[in-house]
Amino acid sequence: MDIEGFRKAGYAAVDRICDYYASLAERPVSAQVQPGFLSASIPTSAPEIGEAWERIDNDYHSVIMPGITHWQHPNFYGYFPCNASFEGALADLYCASISNPGFNWSVSPSVTELEILMVDWVGRMLGLDEAFLSTSGTGGGIILGSASEVALTVAIAARERCIDRLTPQHPMPTVHNGMNGVGSLDADQDVASAGQSAAEVGADATLVANTRLAKWRGGLPSRLVMYGTTQTHTIAAKAALILGLDFRALPVSAESSYSLSGATLAAAIAEDVALGRVPFMLIATIGTTSSGAIDNLPEIVEVVAKHPTLWLHIDAAYAGVCLSLPELRAEMHLDAINSAAVDSFSTNLHKWGLVQFDCSPLHVRDRGDLSRALSITPTYLRTKQADAGNVLDLRNLQISLGRRFRSLKVWFVLRSYGLEGFRKHLRTTMQLANHFESLLRADDPGLLEIVAQPRWALVVFRMKPKGEGCDVEQLNKAFWDDLEAQSAHFVLTQTSLPEVGFCIRFVVGSPQTQRHHVEQTWKLVAQTARSTWARFKSSSSS
Amino acid sequence: MDIEGFRKAGYAAVDRICDYYASLAERPVSAQVQPGFLSASIPTSAPEIGEAWERIDNDYHSVIMPGITHWQHPNFYGYFPCNASFEGALADLYCASISNPGFNWSVSPSVTELEILMVDWVGRMLGLDEAFLSTSGTGGGIILGSASEVALTVAIAARERCIDRLTPQHPMPTVHNGMNGVGSLDADQDVASAGQSAAEVGADATLVANTRLAKWRGGLPSRLVMYGTTQTHTIAAKAALILGLDFRALPVSAESSYSLSGATLAAAIAEDVALGRVPFMLIATIGTTSSGAIDNLPEIVEVVAKHPTLWLHIDAAYAGVCLSLPELRAEMHLDAINSAAVDSFSTNLHKWGLVQFDCSPLHVRDRGDLSRALSITPTYLRTKQADAGNVLDLRNLQISLGRRFRSLKVWFVLRSYGLEGFRKHLRTTMQLANHFESLLRADDPGLLEIVAQPRWALVVFRMKPKGEGCDVEQLNKAFWDDLEAQSAHFVLTQTSLPEVGFCIRFVVGSPQTQRHHVEQTWKLVAQTARSTWARFKSSSSS
C-alpha cells in the first residue's frame, strides 16, 4: 500500500469506525458465535499473492466483527470496563505510523520524556504525594501494559530489596557478565555512568552471570511470603507463581466488607516470622474485583511501617482513577496511600480512564528499587546520553526491553477531556450505577438483594427471595445461566464472595451508556429473576 | 470528541501521516534534542478544561515530533529495524476502536481465534513443522509483546517442566487456593473442565496458595542453570535475573563465527551436572544482535536430545522471518529447528516483518507446558465455554491477564503483501545490505574491514587501517563518536565482539530504504573514516 492508497484506506477506516459507533447500540453486546467459527472463513495459509485492500477491509467487517464482544457497547456491564476514546484511537494510529521500540531515551527521546511527564500528570490528578512523582528526584514511574505486569515487576523489586536489606553483608554486585563482549549488569543505578559499564571481559567468559545469586544460596527465597487477601486479584498469586514464591491469601469477612484489617496482617506477620518465613510484599487493594472492597490502609500502613522488609503495593487497577474526585479521596484512604509505608501504587487508565488498552501507570517511591532489580546493559544498548548519566532509560524499570509509546494516548485524552471532563465521565458513570442500585432495591417482589456495599460503579447482587427457603446457591447458578443466555442484550459477570457464595456483578463504565440503557437492562434482569424463580420453584416442588 | 469530530480529526491524522511519509527522507534521522527538552513545552499538570483537538494535534507535530527518532527513515540503520506498514497502522486503529482485553475466548472470540490462526500462518510461512501448529492438537502458540517476554514466559515453563520431570513423585497439584471465593489453579490443562474449577473453600482460607512450592523445598531451583552464549541477547540473562536463576554464558569464538558448538554445550552440561547443577534451558540464537551469528543447531539438538530436563528455545527475533525464503532455510538450520529436541521458537514480526511493534509470535511444541505453568482461574474469569473445555483462553499461555488484539495486523499485512510481497521486502533489503558490503570491501584506502561474516541485512565493520600500527580500540571509539555526531543523517549502532573488540553495526530494514540512500550513507561513512584517521594519526604522533 502506497501513500495515496493509505490516504484512501485511512479515510475509509475512519468512516467505518464512525459507522461502528453510530450503530453500536444495535449490535449484539456479546459475540453470538460458536467456538471454532473463524476457521471456516480463513484459509490455513497466507495467500501467495497480495490481495486488494478493499477486500481485506471488507472481511474485517464481515468476518472478524461478528466475533467481537463489544466492550464499548452501552449495555456492556461485565468484568471492569475497557474504555475507548476517539482521542486514544488517534494516538494509537500516530504511534503505529512512527513505530519504534522506545527502550532507551535516545531511540526516541519524546517516548521517554512524555512518559515521565504523563506519569506525573496522572499522579497529580490522583492527588499522589510528590514522593511518587519524577520531580521528587527519586520517585516517579513508568507506564506498563497491565496490572499483572505491574504486580510482577513490583514483586521482583520487592524481592531484591528484601534480600538486600536482610543481607547487607552481601551488597548487590555490579556484575561483569561476559555477555556480548563488554557489558555489565548496571544494577546499582538507573543511569549508567561512564566507566562502570566498561568492564573488560576475560577470554574464557564462562563465568556464571548472576553472581548476585550467591547470596540466595542460604535458601532465603524459599522463605519469602507475599500477602494479599482472598479478595486480591489473581495477579498477585500469578506473580508469586511465576517467581516461585509463596502467596498467602489472608482472610477477610463479609462483616468488614471484605477489607483487610491491620490486626489480621499483624497476626499473619507474627505467625510467619515465628515459622522462619520472611514477609516481603503485601498487595493491598482499593476496589477488589469481586465486590469493590477497600483494604483498611490506615491500619495497614501502621503495621507495614514496623517491617522494613515488607514492600507495600497498592493495586487500584479499577478504582484508582476515582482519586481524581476530591469527594472520594477520604474514603479511598488517600492520606494512607501517601504515607511513607507505601512503596508503589498503580491504576489502569485502560479500564475506566478513557485510554485504550493497554495503559497501566505505575508510581513508585524509589525508582532505584526497580532499576537495581532490572537493569542489564550490553554494549549494543549503551548510549552517550546514558553513559553520561543524563537520561533515564525506561527499559531499566521494566521486564521487557522494547516498549510501546503509551503516553501519547494519555496526553491526548487528558488534554482533550481536561480534568473536568475526565471527572464528569466518572461521576456520570457512578450515577448510572446508583440508578441501577435504586431500581434493584425498590423492586417489589423482593427476589433480589445487594450482597456487598456498592462502590464506584459496581453493584454486586444475587437472587434471594424474601421469606422463601431454597438452595440459594443453585438458584443463583440457574439465574446466571438465564442471564448469560441474553448476552446479545447485556453482559454481566459471575463471581463468588465468602459467606455469600455465587453472585453477580454489574459495572457501568462505557462512555456510551445512558440512563435508558441501564433501565432497559434492569427490566431484563428483573424479568429474568421472575422467570428463573418460577421455574426453580416449580422444579424444586415437583 | 463526538463521532463527527472524530471523522474530521481522523481524516486530518491520515493526511498528516501521508505528509509524514512523503517528507520522511528530509527529516533528521535521529532526534536532535537535548535531555529534558520536552518539559519546557509541556505544563506540569493536565489542563482543568479540555482543549480543542486542532491545538492538541498541532502540538503532536510541533512538540513531540522533533523528539522522535525516525525508525522508518530510509537512513535508519541502527539496532534492528522496527518496521511499520500502512496495513499495520490501520489494524492498530481498528483495534483501538474496539478496545478490549481479550483474555478469554468469550470476551472476544475473534481475538483468540484469529491469533491461533495467524500463529499457524506464520509457522507455515516459516516452514515450521506441523508439531508447532495448533492443527497438531498439542502445539501452536501465542503472540506476545517482545522477545524479552517470550524468553521469560518460556523460562517459566521450562523451569516447571524441569522440576516436574525431576520430581515425578510430586506431580503438579490442582490447587484450591482459597482466593476470590471459589477458584483453582487449573494447572494441568489449558482448558478448564467442568467440576475441577468448582473446589469449595474452607472458612479459614488462610492457606498458603502455592502448595506446588513444597516440592521446591529441596533447593532444586538454586541448582537450575540456563545456558546461552556470550552472544545471546540479554533477554536471556534478564529472564534468569527475574526468576532468580543462574545464567551461564558459554564461550564462542571468532574462528567459528561466534556459533555455539555441540561440544561446548556437552562439556558445560557435563561440568554442571558433576557440580550438582541442573541445566534446564538453552536459548540458542539464529542471528545474534552483535554479529548475526547462528548457533550450530544440528550439533546442539543432538546434545539436547540426551537431556530431557533441558528445554531448547530458538531465539530468531531478528532473522527468523527469513525462514520464509526457501533459499535460506538450510543455512538457518530449518531441519534442526523442526527436530523433536526443539521445544519453542520465536521471531519478531515487529522487527523486519512489516508488522508494527509489538508482535512476537511464539511457537511451542506443547502448549500444555505453558498452561501448566501459568494458569490461574478465579470465579470471575470462568466462562461457560472454558468450563465445557471447548475453547483455549490465551491468558493461560502468558504472564499477563489482558492482551492486545495483535493478530489483526498480522492478518492485514500478510494478506495485503502476500507471501510474495513479504519475501520481496526481505530480499530487497538484503540486496541493499550486500551493496553496502561491496562498497566497503572495494574501498580504496583500506581503512575499514568487515569483522564478521555478513548475514541477512547486517554488516559489522570497524576501522583497521591496512599496514598501520595503532590502538585499534581507541581508533574505533573515536570513529564511533564521529559517526554518532552525524545522527541527523544516518543512525548506526556500536557493539563489541570477542577477539575483535569495539565495532559498528549497519542493518538495513526500513521498506523506505533505496539504493541511493545506502550509497549516500556509505559516502558519509567512508569520508568519516578518512577524517577520523587523519585526526587520530596526527594526535597519536604529536
Can you offer a commentary on this structure?
The structure is a homodimer of 542-residue chains. The first copy, chain A, is of the alpha/beta class and 542 residues long. Chain A folds into three domains: 3-73, dopa decarboxylase, N-terminal domain; 109-193 and 215-405, 3-Layer(aba) Sandwich (Aspartate Aminotransferase, domain 2), CATH 3.40.640; 418-541, Alpha-Beta Complex (Aspartate Aminotransferase, domain 1), CATH 3.90.1150. Helices cover 39% and strands 11% of the residues of chain A. Chain A has helices at residues 3-23, 53-64, 86-97, 109-126, 147-166, 234-243, 262-274, 297-305, 334-337, 349-352, 367-374, 384-387, 407-441, 472-484, 515-541, and strands spanning 140-144, 183-184, 224-229, 246-250, 278-285, 311-315, 344-346, 360-364, 377-378, 448-450, 458-463, 493-497, 501-507. Chain A has a seven-stranded mixed sheet, with helices on both faces. In chain A, β6 (311-315), α9 (334-337) and β7 (344-346) form a beta-alpha-beta unit. In chain A, α4 (109-126) runs parallel beside α13. The termini of chain A are far apart. Mean pLDDT of chain A is 90; it is low at 170-212. At the A-B interface, α1, α2, α3, α4 and α5 of A face α1, α2, α3, α4 and α5 of B. Chains A, B: InterPro entries: Aromatic_deC, PyrdxlP-dep_de-COase, PyrdxlP-dep_Trfase, PyrdxlP-dep_Trfase_major, PyrdxlP-dep_Trfase_small, Pyridoxal-P_BS. Chains A, B: One of its GO terms (cellular component) is cytoplasm. Chains A, B: Belongs to the group II decarboxylase family. Chains A, B: The modification N6-(pyridoxal phosphate)lysine is found at residue 351. Chains A, B: Its cofactor is pyridoxal 5'-phosphate.
